[in-house]
Every structure is written in structure tokens, then in C-alpha cells.
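Review box. Two proteins, two foldings.
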Amino acid sequence: MTTRLLPLGDSAWTVEFGSRIDTELNGQVMALANRVAQARIDNPLFAAVTDVVPTFRSLTVHFAPHATDADALAAQLLAFAHNMQQSVITGKHWRLPACFDPSFALDLPAWAQAKQMREDQLIERVLATQFRVYMIGFLPGFPYMGGLPPELAMPRLASPRQRVPPNSVAIAGEMCAVYPWESPGGWNLIGKTPVPLFDLRQTDQPAMLAAGDIVSWYAIDKAAYEQLFLQCQHGERSRETFLAPGDAT
């Protein structure tokens, strides 16, 4: 699919790279997001940009329409998109704990039955997978993470729950996610993480994960979950302690 530029009202442009969900397209999205971030520093044309919103396959650039030339901005965005190197852009690599206790993993038995596998086998596959954060949406801090092997894909629940507990780890299709807040939801619940993925105390970036990040899970028992949960709530564990070795800053 040819890269397309689409107007979003009179104060935003959307650059669309394709029509599928995959790492290559999302890498292009993130590469353009990085290029726009740099242009906001060194290109007066981009000084009016107020926000950039990456998705699975597109980037929306919001701007103040009276403070820039919208057509010139559009032309420069397309030029950036066409001249980028075709490489996959990744962000931080996180190692996050997850507890798969039956009280948290409400849909794990049904998943195991559907795939004719043991529950521990499914958990092992999840722990062996590196998930890529394609986008943040639905709720503040809610990460849409791709990477679940196709043979393990599960449809959404036929009847969504009215209340999904916060911090629930869930799957739907070939995606994995975490519900940062209690909310309705139709994804299959397979565990829970004690790490808050949205924290207003982190004023620079309340959402812990960002598009382009990589997430690996490691298993903990319920006692460790409760301990880590309290540590995170009391500010005794910083986000940086969950970065993969070599990614800490």
C-alpha cells in the first residue's frame, strides 16, 4: 500500500503506511514519530505541532492551524515518510512480573481447553514471547501489544465483563494487554501484574509504556505479587527497576 496523507479536520494530518498490523509498518510509524520529534526542535515549520499519536499503522500529527502553513507541513511529512530508512524502531525493553494465580487468571482454563494444552504450557509460551507495544489506547496507559503466536490466538469473550480488575493481563486475537484501570472489557484474563502502567505521580510520562517498547514477562507467585504491589504503591520501586538488563538508564 502506498503511503497516504489524510486530513483530520483542519488541525491534524494522518500519515498512513498500510492496512495491516505488523512490526515493519509499526517500525515506520515510530521512525516518523522520532523524525517529527526532532523537527519540532530544529525546524520552525514544526514549532506549531502540539502532539503526535502513533497507532498500529499510522501517525497523526496535531498542530495549531493558525501558527503554521498546513500545506507545507503536509508536504514535509510526506517527504519524511518517503525518505526514511526501512528499519524497525524499538523503544525500551521492559521485564514485567505477572502472577498467574487462578484468582487472577479467570480465563486461563478456557484458553487451555480451547488449545488442548496444559495451563502451565500456555504460561511458558507467554513467558517466552517478546511483545511489542504497537499503540496506547482505549484507556490511559492501556498497551496494545502484538506477538502472541497465531496458534494461541483467542477471540474476545462473547459477553464482555462489566468490571475487569485493574492490572489484569489479558489476551485477545494475537494481542496481549494490561488493563491499568477497573473498566468493562472483553479480553481473556490470564494473570495480573503488580506494576502500575499509569501513574499521575510520573508527571513527565504518566503512561509507563510507549509505542515501540518491548515487554517480556516473568512469573511470580501471589505472595510476591502482594509484596511488589505494596512496594509500587508506596513508591519503593521505581519504573527503572523493571527495565531489562542493558536498557536501564
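Next protein.
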Amino acid sequence: MIAEVKPQNKGTKQLFENPILEKLSRTHISIPLIIFFSYAGGLLYWNIKNTSLTPLTTIALFLVGVVAFTWVEYMVHRHVFHLKTYTELRAKLQYKMHGVHHEFPKDKDRLAMPPLLSITIATILLLIFKLVMGDFVFAFLPGFLVGYASYLSVHYMVHAYAPPKNFFKALWVNHSVHHYKDGEIVFGVSSPLWDYIYGTMKMPEAKN
């Protein structure tokens, strides 16, 4: 279970005594969005210029990448960000990774992965997927990265803005349940698909 924290409506918290590490733990939302959309665009350009993938194959792999990211988003949020905190070390790790976000959910500087880590992970994924998928990676990974950028956009909006008066409001409601009602359900942010599949899309029971 995630370490118990009481959500604060405003404020922030210093995670690192070292000012450089503290600075690196924060980012404006625009920076990772620019990084991931640019990275995806560069990979698609390479795909067009240097591979023999057809447009139809490229589009299909791109869409598979987007859907694949929604699954990774769910699994990482549920099993990594909410890892069981049965030791002090795990509790500290979980808090630095995600617990601080639950305590200060409106801290806009911590609503996305820091840029240095973003670039590193994207490059590692490129190298790993290239070994497994060959040239298919240049169509699949752009979709995966666009999926991540879309998740970042949704995550930022649900914390920074009031919900819209349309069907997208459900995303705001779902994430509010996760933050303010029960942190062990509704793990999907950009999509509730995997919550329905894995049985975590449920509202908390009313207390008597």
C-alpha cells in the first residue's frame, strides 16, 4: 500500500538537500512534451528516409505503440509507483517516486518526469526495442512516445484545470477518486481501459 499522506491543496516539498538534484527533480510541463514529440517526430522522419516500411505498416505500428503505452502507464503506476511499502527503504523510495505527488498533487513542477530522465529512458527504449523489433521500432516507438506525451498532457490538465463540461470530465473524476478517495484503485490516467480489464475501475464504498 502507498504510504499514507494527506493531500495538500497547495505548496511543495523539497526532496533533496543537494540543490542540483532538487532542481533536476522538477520541470515545466512544456519541456518533456517538446522532448517526446520531437523525439517521436525524429524517429518517424528516420523511418520515412531510411526504412522500407509502408505507410500502412507505419500507421498500424504507431497505433499499436500508443495502445501499448496505455498498458505500461497502468502497470507502472500500479506496481512501481504504488509499490508495497513494508520496509523503511521502500517507503522512502516510493515517496520520492510518487508519494510526494499524492501529498502535493497541485505542485505543477512535479507533474512530469524530469527532462534528463525522460531523454535517458527514451534512448534506452530505442536501443532495446531496436534489438527486438528491428526497423519496426521507428514506427512503434513514436506511437509509444506520443502516448506518453498524451498521458503527461492529461495528467497535467486534470491537476491544473477545472474539469470540462463534456465526456472528458470522466478523466478528472477518475483521477480525483485515485487521489482523494482510494489510492489503490483507478490507476489509468489517460484511459480507464486497463482498469476495466484488471478490475480496478471501481468506486470506493460509502462509509456508514
